[in-house]
């Protein structure tokens, strides 16, 4: 099983945005040493507690501090941008960091309605045109517009020796079939989906049409997981993330991810307890053996090539140790001191 990292660059209650972005760099470095296949960072806009609004900027920083781990966006929210500019940006990254760049694409707004309006005058129209924009972007990435096409005479320079690998991210049959139609690898967001994901992934595989010779369907399943040496410790660590999600829903999460102690002191209503338990069901929380078992169950369920893990804790050390324990259990790597990765 291959393992990868999805980083939302969370800001804890005792951190500044600078701290959070620096910890994202530390996480990428740790992931590389621990044997994770890739590190992706997400794009969010005006969401308190999440530091990264420009993955393309962070990827330059991450690439400069790592050597071989694949790095990418999870995802660039394409409706906000023209495909040509996205292709130029990621061609630049692929030129700087050869054969290491992934370009995940999404269609979600990634923020509030106000932020969406500030970013785009016609977001909904762009969402409607998303399939066309994806096709256009692929032509720019491959530099293979037909001679009669509108943009056949231009290239998204610089053209790297190894173009970025485009992935489509989603949680629906619609996104899966769009990925299949365009011969793109697909990432299913299990951690943020209420849909039954396995049938969706199955339809993707069955509908897949290779864009290039030799292509086959590729699937990453993204999960939320928190691992500690004991189940009790993992549950404690997860409480910070769970309470923060409730606070955000109520507009109270402005201070970032609460500490374990702060989370324990949060007064829950009965309705919030139900919501918290529902959210917990969609997470993997436990000791290394328990987490490995649940990851294997998901791998079997989806028939996935790779599992991408999103972990949010108050403590950066707890977060890296969670990834470290999972790597040791699943990949069989040495359990070195997590401080070495900071």
Let me know the number of strands.
Answer: 9
The sequence of SSEs as H and E is EHEHEHEHHHEHEHEHHHEHEH
Give the quaternary arrangement of the chains.
single chain
Identify the overall geometry. Answer: globular
Determine the CATH topology.
TIM Barrel
State the fourth-level CATH superfamily.
Luciferase-like domain
The tally of structural domains comes to 1
Integer average pLDDT: 95
Major beta sheet, specifics? 8 strands, parallel, barrel
Beta-strand content bin: 5-15%
Strands of the widest sheet, in order across it, are: 1-2-3-4-5-6-7-9
Which residues sit in consecutive blocks of at least 5 with pLDDT less than 50? 335-342
* Level-2 CATH architecture: Alpha-Beta Barrel
CATH class: Alpha Beta
Radius of gyration: 20 Å
Total of helices: 13
In helices, the fraction of residues equals: 40-55%
Q: How widely separated are the two ends? A: 26 Å
> Which structural class do the helices and strands define?
alpha/beta
